[in-house]
Amino acid sequence: MLNSDEVQAFADAVIARFGAVDMLINNAGQGYVAHFADTPREAWLHEAELKLFGVINPVQAFLPQLEQSDIASITCVNSLLALQPEEHMIATSAARAALLNMTLTLSKELVEKGVRVNSILLGMVESGQWRRRFENRSDKSQGWTEWTAEIARKRGIPMARLGKPQEPAQALLFLASPLASFTTGAALDVSGGFCRHL
Q1: Do 192 and 148 contact (CB within 8 A), yes or no?
Q2: 195: in domain
Q3: Residue 26: which of 129, 118, 130 has the closest Cα?
Q4: Into which family does the record put it (predicted)?
Q5: What are phi and psi of 142, to 5 degrees?
Q6: Is 153 a member of any domain?
Q7: In which domain, by residue range, is 36 found?
Q8: How many structural domains does the chain have?
Q9: Rounded Cα–Cα distance for residues 120 and 181 (Å)
């Protein structure tokens, strides 16, 4: 995602195989866990580069084809950190906020070209990372369901669980599809009610 030549080659291969592009979904994951005093310059730069150019490069590569579609959409997987920063993830929170701003700005710029741009704001969702933490836990008395419910309780997630992977996927499908044909510039919260913002 960070090598623009490789991204362009991928876009060219997609066009060669399928002939057209109607939707682009961007997802540049990971997060840097550290407070301000423990966050080196390299981490700030890497988080900003990954979160922004992980979207910029694919958008630049696919935009000419998207502009030819009558149902074009770009949807970005973002994080609730964009609006609800965590002090122990300051660099990631800042980069996520920048991505949200860029996504909203793109939605204004590309609407005249017939391209909708939206994002989802993820809360805590089951993942390989959570599975690894579960396997490496010191207290083995709880099973997966109890263990994740305890995390959700401690974090204050009203739905009392972590999200299932298919739940953000369904939100992405909605925003990317013609079902959301009158929606652009939106940031859909997918956090089980964990949001603290208006």
Answers
A1: no
A2: no
A3: 118
A4: Belongs to the short-chain dehydrogenases/reductases (SDR) family.
A5: -100, 145
A6: no
A7: 4-125+163-190
A8: 1
A9: 16
